[in-house]
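Before a colleague's protein record goes any further, I have to sign it off. Alongside the sequence sits a line of tokens, each denoting a local backbone shape. I want your independent view on whether this chain really folds as the tokens say. Where you disagree with what is written, explain briefly why. This is what I was given:
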Amino acid sequence: MHLGLRARITIAVGLCAAALSLLLGLGELQRQAAPAVARPGPAAAAARLVVLAEAARPIALGETITAGMIRNAPGDPARHPLVATAGEVVGKVATRPLAAGAMIPREALDQVARLAIRVPFGMRAMTIETPGEIAVAGLLRPGDTVDVEVVYPGADALSGARGSARSRADTLLQNVLVLAVGDAVVGASAGPATAGERTSGPARTVTLALAPAQVAVLSLAKSTGTLHLSLRNPADVGQLRLATTVSRAPLPVVPPMAAPPPATEIRVIPGASSRHPIELIVGDRRRVIYAGSGAR
């Protein structure tokens, strides 16, 4: 039996529709069999974000990081597992330079109160002995700035005179950073003393941050004079031109030296006899005390 053209087209369209329905049914069965995966909503994504630390400005090697040097950067700790949070950064020391806008990793921070890492780049640390009255009555703290004065005692000093001239005082260095007072180092965390806790007395040493040329100047002054420190306001960074101050106290009267006693000399006068005469000379006076014959 021969089918007409219209019949063959109708059969082909029906077969295609049946095949398409079959494919759609199989796809729906697969979607229903697959486990449902919940997509995280906005609230869940925000819950994973924490406040990470980002450098607000370039941070140099050895700088103690303060709150003003960093800014908050929300981030996913799963994507940034090595980056420190803001609370982990403040008070630590940068062990390498950090660029502005860079995330701050934990391994770039030093958590130990070591003095060497806190010496500013290009500077040197020098320690001087400071009794209480010289070190501002023990009120100095690491991070303060001071001026260094030197007093050269002269003959008019009450004690410790080292010269015949008058005493004088010079302002040796200005606006010097205090790196450490005793064992307390700048930038090291130190909690406040609890009630009833007895604190130690003033430290006997102060460590200053100096330029290499200033180290030689302070070393010479320390060996020839007496050093004093004066505390400055941290906002006062001016350098003043100060004159040398010379003592006006009268110089001590030195009594004239007494004339030395006349020299005494005993001289043997050569002679022909076997026993030589002996002459005593006292100043310009001469006297023979032994004539050589046995008589005196």
Observations:
- Residues 88 and 106 are 8 Å apart (CA to CA).
